[in-house]
Amino acid sequence: MSAPQQLHELLSEGNELNVVCHNNPDPDCLASALALGRIAAAAGIEESHIHILYDGDISHQQNRAFVNLLDIDLSTFDPKTIRDRPPESLLALVDHSVPGANNRIPKETPIDIVIDHHPADGVDARFVDHREDIGAAATILTEYVEALGIDIDEALATALLFAIRRETLNFLRGVTREEYEAAAFLHESADDELLHRLSAPSVTGETLDAISTAIENRRVKRSVLVSHVGRTTERDALPQAADYLATLEGVETAIVFGVINGAIQLSARSPDPRIHAGNVLRRAFSDVGSAGGHHDVAGGEIPLGIFADYRSDDETLLDIVEQVVTARLFAELKISADSKK
Predict the structure, then answer these.
(1) Residue 23: how many CB atoms within 10 A of its CB?
(2) I want to staple 116 with a disulfide (CB 3.0 to 4.6 A). Which of 76, 97, 121, 195 is the partner?
(3) For residues 97 and 79, what is the distance between their CA atoms, to the nearest angstrom?
(4) For residue range 26-66, what is the model confidence (pLDDT) as tens digits?
(5) Mean local confidence (pLDDT), 173-180
(6) What would you give as a GO molecular function for this chain, any one (predicted)?
(7) What mean pLDDT, rounded, does the chain reach?
């Protein structure tokens, strides 16, 4: 039995599906969840019993446009509903794979379905398709939709195609033959005008301010740039700033961090083949938070609790955060913090 058939059979055994997105979900996660929901409906689960759940914020203007223009029905994640669900209720993770890692699912929670492309250890579920070599989770779900003959309407095709394009930076990052094949399958059903609107959403003033702050605070040593945005509410300004700063002449690796609510968020971009961005962040911060990702794209989160002694003074807190995070990054990259180059 093929993997798509195995997934279909498992879904046909349930009467409810909870698809839990990772914290602050992006288009790849959301499109994958939408596609899995369509497969579940084809397997016999009533649409009213299919729930796409998320935690955190959908703050990136492109992500907000994605949800609004495609009219994706989302619900806030509540760990109690997962803990108390009946046996016939299936639990799925898409675009992430481990309970408690980039999600609020209690650790050791049994998982029914995992479909992911991010590096991870300890992936365990009744059904697992974990392919680190694939460029997007949406690519895997597109394969399933095609193999199972699921009716693909304009909204689903547009969501999946945009997710693949976004996750691979328009087929320039981590792309494989499977992404091209998936795009070819989706192209005829997708809405070109909607794809254009999703690709060029409006930008908030807060996002521009955060990116401006990152530009001003940049520190470049060798080919590595480290910067911070201070405190912001615009979480997705970090990857946007990292993307922009990575284009600076002479820079091969850009890492941007900032304080958002009760945590330090990090975003890294590294086309440099000598540096694995995910490993750098994981080794630098795994003892105080969660971090990791791909060779060229990575992120992390550090609870501010480790800086409890400084939280009453925001200016001092930001200074200490900048010093500690920057020092850890340069130490992991084996770059002297005192060096000028």
Answers:
(1) 18
(2) 97
(3) 16
(4) 999 999 999 999 999 999 999 999 999 998 877 677 777 88
(5) 93
(6) nucleic acid binding
(7) 91
As given in the structure block, the two tokens for residue 171 are 């087929």
Report the DSSP pairing between strands 263-269 and 224-231.
unpaired
For the chain, give the longest Cα–Cα distance.
Answer: 63
What distance in Å separates the CA atoms of residue 292 and residue 297, rounded to the nearest whole number? Answer: 9
* CATH code for residues 3-199: 3.90.1640.10
* Domain ranges for the chain: 3-199, 205-332
- Judging by DSSP bridges, how do beta strands 263-269 and 297-303 pair with one another? antiparallel
User: For 294, phi and psi rounded to 5 degrees?
Assistant: -85, 180
pLDDT confidence bin for 197, thresholds 50/70/90? confident
Q: Among 334, 61, 94, which Cα is nearest to 221's? A: 334
Predicted TM-score (pTM) of the model is 0.74
3-state secondary structure of 291: strand
Identify the CA nearest to 224 among candidates 118, 336, 319: 336
Strand pairing of 290-293 and 263-269? unpaired
